[in-house]
Amino acid sequence: MIEAVLNIVVDLSDQKLYAYSEDSVYEFVVSTGKPSTPTPVMEEVIDRKYEVTDLYGPGYYLHDVPYVMCFKDHAEYCIHPNTTSKPLGEPHSMGCVRMSTEDAGWLFDRVEVGTPIKVVL
């Protein structure tokens, strides 16, 4: 049986995502929004999951991105695999939370729609 993730915290100051299960805390290096397109501090829930989907916005179109988990505030943000060659651990996204493909797949398998996510400084 796969252990469910009950809560997610994204820490902008250390570029880490923490996934909390009933008995464990898992830590992942991520990349969040760059200064011109920051990932906002917020409390939300994962409201949609896509095994594979296209991501698009001003100035970008990404085809067939796997393991996408979306949450909303005034705009839409997602957790998904890193789609560039830029290293994780540094802010460089358009506001989404990027992870390694392996880590995104691990998290995708353990997160249900409705899981709380909190983005903190």
What does this molecule look like?
- By secondary structure, the protein is mainly beta.
- It has one domain (7-120): Beta Barrel (L,D-transpeptidase catalytic domain-like).
- It is built from one helix and nine strands, in the order ββββββββαβ.
- It has one helix at 101-110, and strands spanning 7-11, 16-20, 25-29, 42-45, 48-57, 60-72, 76-81, 97-99, 116-120.
- The strands form two sheets. The chain has a five-stranded mixed beta sheet, with no helix packed on it.
- The longest helix is centred in the C-terminal third of the chain and has 10 residues, at 101-110.
- The model has no long low-confidence stretch (mean pLDDT 95).
According to DSSP, the number of beta strands is 9
Helix content: under 10%
Major sheet attributes: 5 strands, mixed
| Overall spatial form | globular
Q: Low-confidence parts lasting 5 or more residues at pLDDT below 50? A: none
- Name the average pLDDT: 95
Summarize the helix and strand pattern as letters.
Answer: EEEEEEEEHE
Domain tally: 1
| End-to-end Cα distance | 34 Å
* Oligomeric organization of the protein chains: single chain
Helix and strand composition category: mainly beta
User: In CATH, what is the homologous superfamily?
Assistant: L,D-transpeptidase catalytic domain-like
- Strand arrangement within the widest β-sheet reads 3-2-1-9-4
CATH topology: the name is L,D-transpeptidase catalytic domain-like
Counting DSSP H or I runs of 4 or more residues, the number of helices is 1
Label the CATH architecture: Beta Barrel
Q: Regarding CATH, which class?
A: Mainly Beta
Task: Report the β-strand fraction as a percent range.
Answer: over 45%
Calculate Rg over CA atoms.
13 Å
